[in-house]
Design brief:
about 475 residues, mainly alpha, globular, binds benzoyl coenzyme A
């Protein structure tokens, strides 16, 4: 359905005047937030070649056009309902999914929706300065595409809050625009969303690692017995795939450029050539992987067990798992910290659901590294990018109390601190990477020195397409 309404949607918004009015009241506040906290310097004078969801069918969500960013038509789209869908796990396994919020699970559902919703505008805030230092028009367009879609994901959660949670839902929707990334008084809810994304290496690592947490959390919520949440998340996942592609291909292009220069000049010292050396890339990887691991919560979590038992948040690809989907008699083996050591323990499966999801995530993260390492190998360079140990640099969960190296060795705090500069970006590394950024490269087909061009453009357009028009 292509909608000419103020708020494009496939939820028949015009049939519920009260809800429509409430959302139309929230809309100008959202636009104001976008202007204040969204892409800085790119609001009214630039036309960006973006994909806009105008409906959920394949043609509808892959519709490309030039828009000025504040005029992007943020809409509300839920994936089509699955006929006769049943709850796939927990105490209500096999019963029909809920179209309304069950009163007894209201608080938990609201909390999950608010936490999910909070990350979306947070990431736009984190990325708001990147346009000024874009390495090409292609990349400039990609960050704006991602920002617009994160804005739409906020709309998806705000719709649920307004439509199903009454007055407190509306209040939560207001607060989603009032908390800000890194704000000391009103920070965003989850740790990684208060970190800065000051440069494009950070941006690509963020979209590779942190957006991938989004994939796994959204996939778990897509299993929810609360059907409107499940359908919202299913549609969000389609958009999420492009964000991770931007991250994976972005890091790959940086690695490619670095390797090309190393080969051409027969040197490891690519900093002298204005590129990013492989050890620095590894340090950024270590940082973003470890803060993203924290986003999965505690290894042993009664919250996660309750969400599962209640039927509000499932496991990754729950319906494809071959077990009883209740898990009260199942166990799970995992590493945890005990008495200053990393130990393997067998725990009740229900309490280990965060860790199980983290395992799925780590496995997925490893795939991109294979591709990045292939680039290094093809250049004949003896260097391998590695995922650090899961206990490295953790703030949330049992490993918080340990000091662990990327190889998984537990050590004293003093030893860890003495080595930290080899493992995580130092102030000097960050200053170097920042020094490479900008000013934005705005000539079509031109790329900053530290990154290779993409293998192909967006929507079958060439790499030298005018992805952003400056009027
Ligand atoms: N930072 O029992 P636990 C995305 C808190 S990303 C700060 O383990 P639970 C995106 C926790 O709140 C996906 N606090 O918690 C990506 C709890 O607080 P209380 C976002 C943290 O609930 C890129 C306490 O510690 N979606 O979409 O099992 C761009 C005990 O923890 C953190 C979701 O996260 C942290 N990292 O698990 C744009 C899905 N971790 O109760 C978008 C919804 C834990 O003591 N959220 N805490 O006050 C959830 O499912 C869960 O809230 C979590 C935490 C998995 C995050």
């Amino acid at each position: 359905m292509i909608s000419a309404e103020k708020i494009p949607n496939n939820v028949n918004l015009s049939s519920n005047k009260r809800l429509q009015r409430a959302l139309e009241h929230w809309q100008p506040k959202y636009i104001q937030w976008w202007r204040d906290m969204g892409p800085q310097g790119f609001q009214d004078y630039h036309q960006v070649y973006v994909r806009t969801a105008i409906s959920v069918d394949p043609e509808g969500w892959a519709h490309f056009e030039y828009v000025k960013l504040p005029e992007y038509r943020w809409g509300i789209f839920l994936a089509d309902p699955v006929h006769d869908r049943k709850i796939g796990f927990g105490d209500f396994f096999g019963q029909s999914v809920w179209q309304e919020v069950p009163g007894e699970f209201r608080n938990q559902l609201r909390r999950l929706i608010v936490t999910q919703g909070d990350t979306e505008p947070a990431s736009v805030e984190q990325q708001r300065l990147l346009g000024k230092t874009a390495p090409s028009l292609y990349d400039l367009r990609n960050v704006f595409q991602i920002n617009c879609e994160e804005g739409r994901h906020l709309w998806a959660m705000v719709y649920l809050l307004h439509a199903y949670f009454g007055r407190d839902g509306r209040e939560e929707a207001e607060m989603l625009l009032e908390r800000h990334s890194g704000d000391p008084d009103k920070p965003r809810i989850l740790g990684a969303f208060n970190e800065a994304t000051p440069d494009w290496l950070s941006f690509f690592m963020f979209t590779y690692f942190t957006d991938r947490d989004g994939k796994y959390q959204l996939a778990s919520l897509a299993e929810s017995g609360f059907d409107p949440l499940a359908r919202s998340c299913r549609f969000m996942l389609i958009e999420e795939a492009h964000h991770m592609f931007v991250g994976e291909s972005g890091v790959q292009r940086i690695v490619q450029r670095t390797c090309d220069l190393m080969k051409e000049h027969k040197t490891d010292d690519v900093r002298s050539l204005g590129a990013i050396d492989l050890p620095t890339i590894q340090k950024y990887l270590n940082f973003h992987f470890s803060v993203s691991l924290d986003l999965f919560g505690q290894e042993a979590s009664t919250n996660a067990a309750n969400y599962y038992t209640m039927g509000v948040k499932g496991r990754y690809l729950e319906t494809r798992i071959d077990d009883d989907h209740v898990l009260t008699d199942s166990t799970f083996d995992m590493d945890t910290a005990d008495n200053g050591r990393i130990v393997r323990k067998t725990v009740p499966a229900l309490s280990a659901l965060n860790e199980r999801l983290r395992n799925d995530y780590i496995e997925d993260c490893a795939r991109g590294l294979i591709r990045w390492n292939r680039v290094i190998e093809q250049a004949g360079i003896a260097f391998e990018l590695k995922l650090p140990h899961r206990a490295f640099n953790r703030r949330i969960g049992a490993f918080n109390e340990l000091n662990v190296s990327p190889e998984g060795k537990v050590m004293s705090e003093a030893e860890w601190k003495a080595n930290e500069h080899k493992w995580l970006p130092t102030a000097e590394d960050r200053a170097y990477v920042t020094s490479l950024m900008g000013p934005a490269v705005i000539e079509p087909g031109k790329f900053a020195n530290w990154i290779a061009p993409p293998l192909r453009g967006i929507n079958n357009q060439p790499a030298n397409f005018e992805y952003v028009r400056f009027n």
